[in-house]
Amino acid sequence: MFNHLLSLLIWLPVVGAIPVLMAGSGRPNTARWLALAVAVLTFVLSLFLLTQYNPVDPAKQLTESYLWISSLGVHYGLAVDGISVALILLTTFVGILVIVGAWEVIQDKPHQYMAAMLVLEGLMIGVFCATDALLFYVFFEAMLIPMFILIGMWGGPRRVYATLKFFIYTFFGSIFMLVGLIYLYLKAGSFDLNTLAALPLTLQEQTWLFFAFLIAFAVKVPMVPVHTWLPDAHVEAPTGGSVVLAAVMLKIGGYGFLRFSLPIVPDASEAYAWLVIGLSLVAVVYIGYVALVQEDMKKLVAYSSVAHMGFVTLGIFIAFMLVRDANNADAAKLGMQGAMVQMISHGFVSGAMFSCIGVLYDRLHSRQIKDYGGVINVMPWFGFFYVLFAMANSGLPGTSGFVGEFFVILASFSANPWIALFAAFTLIIGAAYTLWMVKRVLWGDITNPHVAEMKDINGREWFVLGAFAAAVLILGVWPQPLIHLMDSSVTQLVQQLGNHKI
């Protein structure tokens, strides 16, 4: 079984979606339980990655390779390193929580909703396993379909507008990546990522390819200025869609930079690292101010995601400056580690924040901050979780939100104190917009009679929020297991940054 563990992780949820669909609308509980069983089994299988993967060995492991398209030499190639393992575990963990979270909420065609979630989970795992560029592209694009369906069928009043904007933005970016991959294939005769990483390229070739990859992955992260699709998608998406989008799908942009931009076009990545660092700082500071004035809770957290993902791209590209300009590999490794921890942490924190907003919306059917106030008086346990996740979103020490940002700020200081100053400024802005929202929603007197009638969280919501809370606290207090899991992979990435192709 372990020889095909990665294929099992990809295709179990995809194939498992078939009996869920066959349950039909006439047996909604059967569909729910089947979906939960598939999600739990996928998570259990993903835990075997921890026993089968050797974190000391930086090489890709659990390799699978089968000829897929013989005329083009395309392989169905899978393998994982420590970064991939961490992101797969995040995906399967969140997969269970979105199924449970939607248990009673989705009443219209729950079998189709659950099936779409399972298919999306399998395709996201495929992205993190693919070692063939064309296979990566197929998974990368195929993810759009179930997410398009989730927003389009179970979204809010402006769901058609949001789905079209989401699809057009992400598909537009992907076209540039496809053109770049075709060019590389014509040069190398292969789509294998290791072959492409070893391919000699001139600086001009690297520059064109760098911007092709930048557009594709910047949209997915999303980075400023191609971030405007995200708030609309989040506002209109059902709660589960928002959780998966924020917790996992955004990470695929950062993951793409690691697999394509850094190893394939290292010299162009160094030459234009200043551009990515600048855009990351704009996201960290400016988007934080944009979040500060939002009146819709989902839109506020969506802009918060853009700001926090700015730390990921900052940590990745600050490493170039540290390795090649400052010759400081240790600081570069710290920045890269911070970016990776931030990806996992943001998955937990953003997923938890959107889950909390979903709890409120299920009771009052409003996401407007002004419609609430005094919620803590009638929902004390919810208030506990909401404050905890708000603290994590603000980067409070002891929560996962602090670890990655702290590492990136330390690394940035070694490169340029001014960059560190701007990066650290987000801790103040993040605390401002997050705590301002919490103050208006939770505290004070109850002014809306409908708020007075709200009930505290039930057992299902307890499970979802409790699981997110445990992840946020464990990673915040004890990040070492995650750092150890990714350490050799991060070290190898930093060593690759020093390689030149020209």
Can you give me a brief rundown of this structure?
With 502 residues, the chain is mainly alpha-helical. 76% of the residues lie in helices and 3% in strands. It has 22 helices and 2 strands.
Structure description:
The chain is mainly alpha-helical and 502 residues long. It has one domain (5-498). The protein has 22 helices and 2 strands. A two-stranded antiparallel ribbon has the order 1-2. A hairpin with a 4-residue loop joins strand 1 (61-69) and strand 2 (74-80). It is globular, with a radius of gyration of 22 Å. The termini are far apart. Residues 130-427 form the NADH:quinone oxidoreductase/Mrp antiporter transmembrane domain. Belongs to the complex I subunit 4 family. Pfam families: Proton_antipo_M. It comes from Dyella soli.
